[in-house]
Amino acid sequence: MAIFSKLFSKIRAGSSSPGDWEEIEEALIASDLGAKSAAEIVEIAKKSKVDQIDEAITASLQSWLSKNNREIAFNADRPTTVIIVGVNGTGKTTSTAKLVSYLKRENRSVLLAAADTFRAAAVEQLQTWGERLAVQVITGPANGDPASVAFDAVTKTKIEAIDYLIIDTAGRLHTKSDLMDELGKIRRVVEKVLPVDEVLLVVDATTGQNGIIQAKIFMESVAITGLILTKMDGSAKGGIALAIERETGVPIKFIGTGEGAEDLEVFSAEGYLSGLFR
Amino acid sequence: MFESLSAKFQGAFSSLRSKGRLKSGDIDEIATEIRSALLDSDVSLSVVESFILQLKSRTNEVLEDLNKSTNPANAVFEIVNSLLIEILGGSARRIRLAKKPPTVILLTGLQGAGKTSLAGKLAKYLKDQGNTPLLVASDLQRPNAVTQLQVVGESIGVPVFAPEPGNGVGDPVQVAKNGLTFAQDKLHNIVIVDTAGRLGIDAELMTQAKRIRDAISPDEVLYVVDAMVGQDAVRTAQAFQEGVGFDAIVLTKLDGDARGGAALSITQVTGKPIMFAATGEKVTDFDLFYPDRMASRILGLGDIQTLAEQTKGAFDSETAAKLETKFASGEDFTLDDFLAQLEAMKKMGSMTKLLGMLPGMNSGANSGAMKKQLEQFDEGELVKTQSIVQSMTPLERHDPKVLNGSRRSRIASGSGRQVSDVNSLVERFSQAQKVMKQMRTGKGGMQMPPGMPTMPTMPNMPKVSAPQNKKKSRSGNPAKRALES
């Protein structure tokens, strides 16, 4: 999203016709920032001195970004539990695999729970990843109770003192309240054995303004602690990430940048902001 | 679906309605409101701008005439409606069948758009129409996409051609080609080829998609797109159009609250129609896309046509006729009829989805309370109610008055419910009966179309708070009783 530097080049060069400003606003809207935020950025730029536009915008973007910790939780004294949630097709299972790969590189032991018992072959998809990454996968019967898979997995995690338990759940549209309740149940069942440390919402970077509603509803029903933004290697500008952080205060923790298991980057807010003007 | 968009449109128009005579400035005002509604719904900027331009020019052209009409705001509303229908593609389009079978359908799209699920739904849809589709597993990229297609195929009874295990092994072009030959040999009249998801900017995979296309020369290339996609929708659609080319669009995940801006953008920019829409997780949650109906939905006019069709499909004509005669002849509405209705309701599908098709359901004054009720509507309640009725004897079903304490407790244990559940069902039923009578005698304000008497008996509806004259004696004569109530 290194769009800002180019955007304001005309303004910096001294031109500031209404057409130029419109062009800027259009580019901002096209990045899925949302019409409101786009208009605000333009206002900020208009108000500041030409040579201070970058600083002014950076400052306000900084204030929109979440203040919460972006590092994935880790407990030295007990296993860390992570639940992966999201709507259908955002890349939960792939992100789960990438996260495992990341943690393995950090020399952590990991156990996977295939709690997506709904989508055909989702369990097999995770098992294939498990084999590739040499990680054990706990499964249950197809169309079985995902909470029972989670329970088996968390019990095993505790007994064997594994560093991380990662639970992959079925995709669900945030409008289906019964499915959202099911997530709550998975969480409660895990909490009987170990506290839940992270609930990560996987958001597709190509998602539009609907992403904000998704994040809000998932936050209400399962208290998400962070975001994984996927498909950042496409042509989408991912402005929705900034919009979600601004609206919900939930921090982005990782971004997915490709199809390989290692294509997951720790999100750096400073890097993201400075990248805008590079 | 499209809820927020329709709510915004309704808001914009209600302020216009209060104006009466319209000036050019009023048009600008509503145009601005519509612009922001469309942008918030992820309609791409260029499409919004051209929409607004057309709206303004058309409205201003006829402004004089508009003000002569009794309701100028409605006339503007009509212009917006017809513009939306135009953008959404005019009329519904069906699959073109090849002159010489098999008809070959190729599915393309981004990762996670829902191609594999869609392949299953499309196959089921075509099979139900008497075709003999074959599914071909050419997504050899995503881990276990092949297995997923096999499981889906098995569940709907459609054979799946999957010679390669996938997970990166095998040549998708060869699989597609062999699939076609296989279909010709086995006399399948339709072949649906599922391919790997790819990013619009991934040149290598785009070339592969092109090679698959060239190898099987499909009759229809369908571009599958997630209804929740944002401003990138246009760029990606264009990349696919240039890369593989497609004939029509399939919208998925329309059952969420996506405002569906992508639908408007993609059809406008690519000039291709939306052919199908997927609206749920079940294989049957799939239908042709009707631009006029969708426009109505966006504008909060409801989708009565689809509702009527689904109702017709669920009530077999015999049951409906029986209910109608009963209704007309003034016969009592019994628990047996109630059960028939419940079964029909289950066949029609999700209640929430059905009610969402009613006009004004997504916007306006009702929306808050009504939506909350919809959200709380428990589909499981239907099953519960059904089990209770099924545990009753024919006599009890015909005349719930005989239900004394011991009968009720027998029914409760027979259906695995509590006596309180039985009590509340009986109470709700007697209220429903009352409503039916009121409607028949013309006392109720609401007129229900024949064959649709389900609404007043909706389980879980708040109890009718009308005072109940419990002390009043109830006559044994149904006609007299009707008058009493």
UniProtKB/TrEMBL annotation, chain A:
Its main location: membrane. Residues 251-264 form the SRP54-type proteins GTP-binding domain. InterPro entries: AAA+_ATPase, P-loop_NTPase, Signal_recog_particl_SRP54_hlx, SR_rcpt_FtsY, SRP/SRP_N, SRP54_GTPase_dom, SRP54_N_sf. GO terms for molecular function: GTP binding; GTPase activity; signal recognition particle binding. GO terms for biological process: SRP-dependent cotranslational protein targeting to membrane. Keywords: Cell membrane, Cytoplasm, GTP-binding, Hydrolase, Membrane, Nucleotide-binding, Receptor. GO terms for cellular component: cytoplasm; plasma membrane. It is a peripheral membrane protein. It is found in: Cell membrane. Belongs to the GTP-binding SRP family. This is Unannotated protein. It comes from freshwater metagenome.
UniProtKB/TrEMBL annotation, chain B:
Residues 440-485 are annotated as: Disordered. It is an enzyme of class 3 (hydrolase). Its EC number is 3.6.5.4. GO terms for biological process: SRP-dependent cotranslational protein targeting to membrane. InterPro entries: AAA+_ATPase, P-loop_NTPase, Signal_recog_part_SRP54_M_sf, Signal_recog_particl_SRP54_hlx, Signal_recog_particle_SRP54_M, SRP, SRP54, SRP54_GTPase_dom. GO terms for cellular component: signal recognition particle, endoplasmic reticulum targeting. Residues 1-88 form the Signal recognition particle SRP54 helical bundle domain. Residues 446-462 have a biased composition (Low complexity). GO terms for molecular function: 7S RNA binding; GTP binding; GTPase activity. Residues 102-300 form the SRP54-type proteins GTP-binding domain. This is signal-recognition-particle GTPase. It comes from freshwater metagenome.
